[in-house]
Amino acid sequence: MADRRLFTFMLFVLSAVCCSLTEAGYISYNTNSVIVPGKINVHLVAHSHDDVGWLKTVDQYYVGSKNEIQGACVQNVLDSVVSALLADRNRRFIYVEQAFFQRWWRQQSDATKKIVKELVSSGQLEFINGGMCMHDEAAPHYIDMIDQTTLIRQPFGHLFIKQEFGQIPRIGWQIDPFGHSAVQAYLLSAEVGFDALYFSRIDYQDRETRKKFKTLEIVWRGSKTLGSSSDVFTGIFPKNYEPPPGGFYFEVNDKDPVIQDDPLLFDYNVQERVNDFVVSALSQANITRTNHIMFTMGTDFKYQYANSWFRQMDKFIHYVNQDGRVNALYSTPSLYTDAKYASNETWTLKTDDFFPYADGPNGYWTGYFSSRPSFKQYVRMLSGYNLAAKQLEFLKGRDSSGLTTDSLADALAIAQHHDAVSGTEQQHVANDYAKRLFIGYTEAEKLVGLSLGCLTESSLNSDCYSPKTNFEQCPLLNISYCPPSEADFSNGKDLVVLLYNSLGWKRDDVIRIPVSSDSVTVLDSANGREIESQLLPINEASVRIRSQYVKAYLGEFLDVAPKFWLAFPVSVPPFGFSTYIVSNARSQASAATMSSLHPSKESNDGYIEIGPGELKLLFNANEHELSYYTNSGRAVNSSLKQSYKFYAGSVGEYTDLQASGAYVFRPDGTFPIKSDDKVPFNILHGPILDEVHQQINPWIYQITRVYKTKEHVEFEFLVGPIPIEDETGKELATEFSTSMETNKIFYTDSNGRDFIKRIRDYRTDWALHVNQPVAGNYYPINLGIYIEDDNTELSLLVDRCVGGSSIQDGQVELMLHRRLLHDDGKGVAEALNERVCVKNECTGLTVQGKFYLRIDPLGEGANWRRTTGQEIYSPLLVAFTVQDGGNWANSHVSTFSAMESYSLPGNVAMITLQVLKDGTVLLRLAHLYEVDEDKDLSIMATVDLNKIFPGKKILKITETNLSANQERSVMEKKRLKWRVDGTPAREKIVRGGPVDPSKLLVELGPMEIRTFLIYFDKPASSHAVQ
Ligand SMILES: [Zn+2]
Fold this sequence. Notes:
The chain has 1026 residues and is α+β, with helices and mostly antiparallel strands.
């Protein structure tokens, strides 16, 4: 027995020596594998997730500085990936973030560029997503999502990839954003032309259900209006976007075992590692339909030494395929998608969206909907400004040597990143985004001023570079800081106020500017007539904010503040401007009416009535609380209460350490904030508007405005600094309560576009276990939220992304500000405790903003939500110049519309008008209504392009996909059509027909966005002022 054992041992040693003699040298790994039918095919997708700012700024990540914060250098990634791909032509890699790629590309030699182009054309290197960043999906407005993906002006984004590499990205790759929007699925995937969309972060309960039923891969129908025409194949990763369980991380400092296949060295482990791989593959295959699975081989800032990953993947492919139980191959999401498509499988249909995201019972990522509210507003404000500035650039003509909106567009694109506008970046990174936006704004502001100067001096009638009229703008107008309007007009100088309207409809509005004198008058410069105006004393809370924030932002110490807001009604033609003259009043009769401060007329039943028009609010005379809303013109009469409350931010407890933080909302109790009756309840009455001023508590000031000519209530809030002396973080919300019976149902928008039905404590796709009854019912709100019952609907519109919900029937709430003292453990490693500093003195951030409320008869709210929603996104652009005694209207154009007498239909907005470098013009028209949303406006609309561009001849017009990198018809033909489980529902999808170049009429069905490249008979870059 013993001898025989020895013999066996000898045989084993001999065989080991024999094999080691043949394999100890050079091994040519066979990486040339392709899909094998009938086997489980493991698609290895090599990727690096490079955040365009998070713990470090975008530039710090690129160059690899500040590695003490995070060891990350994206230059290393791109450099080393290129050489690793050249070392084995079977290797593949995908790259996402164009913000980094552009930084790298411009530094490369022609020789390297040539090599990279070859890598792209051979399919070894593939661009996916293709935007500047992987945008967040909760906080961005859909126009910003489109712009950052297209970014047609800067030579980066989809058009750059097309021009430079001849490639059209096919795949949406949103692997890290914290929840996924319907607009991402149907607009930024299907309408862009993507064949599939992949991501990882969905609710943990949803994921478990999907694993059980093999529904991690689905067809997502994000638009109920566009139905199956905008279906997109959607793949959700089983765990996250990192390598699968089993030890497959291979950055140089990672700890997972590498394949040791040199028999002359210790720890030879080929078979063990092959087994690990096969186990992992079979486990994933168990929860996946078809015999194709994807291993996402990479994570944040990996591949800084790409060879360390590729060497291991080479070996895995070689040995796993020798083993033969599964088939491993280098792949990309495109190849994977094609394989899924070729399987001819049918897929479960998914509608609505993937909000909110939770990674555990107390881990609802719904705080970030409201994190950094001022930054969110800055991004939104500049988004609307950018749209207007691009129009004015078009009207003036693009001057290649002059000012452009490029820098603003670039900064806005980066700000859409999922750790930027989301509010989940470190403070120094938030500052970096704000700085970039400010630099971009400053250039755009000059361009806008120049363009307005040229347009008002139309007599030049030639290329206009230095108009005599100098228009100033006031970016701090919201805190009553505006030097031109605060000036003294007693010396014969008049203030010219120009209002530019970037919407395609005539617009009536009321504007407010700070003035110093109590005796001013306003003239409509078009007819020289005096118009009614009203003065409202600027309250102390605003004066304090103005003084502190002007010091903080501009370093200027102001000792004199303007005394009044001057409010006056304006009427501005579509895609054009009007001008008004403000001067010292010559007589008392012509002067602006001073608001009356005396106590309001109190009705017999103990209520104080507010509102100069048909809309009235009734406040309880004793409690000073809002009680009723009535609109006699619309026969609406509803009880309505408003209050403020805060949620104490949880710090976690023994059983679950989860704290409330930048990402996560985890309340630890709700605390009502009662108005202190000792604080005066000031009411201003006037001919244009009434205002109710309330110091709700020492850190909440609210102004409620009811205008004579508007049928909604405007609320302006000043919140902060949120006190933390009690060492409790606070998340501030305001709520409105009515007696409406809403049966748990409310509606919130998706990225400012479609409204999605929400049901409290319920999800469509699985039986929800509610652990966080407030946080688990919060949704992102970019346009608005509404509730309805059998008779009425109540809508709230917002001026930035905020979180909101309907926590009880008949109630809606918005979270306006958050100040927290603990990190929530999701990576940012900072508490969300924003401060503002003057010199070295820092206080908690005060946030200012507005929201808007209206109650309509049931079925009539959509028109207001859509129209006013556009007006909030695109406020009138206000510019000022001083006129020295002369008659403005005699020497200037006082009112102008680029569309002359035309205006767009009420259900259509022009969301892009942009002149490109070569003079081509990019135009996007958007239908604003969903199917069945409004009885009159959810219908096909027709736009006459001849009338948008009067006096210009359109030589050629090409309809493209949403990101303008391919013709629409070509995209339609190419895009994969996926099969859905069950019998297809009958649908009536309305889309506009092709545009006849001889008629130039564009039809738009509900929710349709159509994108065109227009070639005029002479390039718009030499466009003369009309
Ligand atoms: Zn990320």
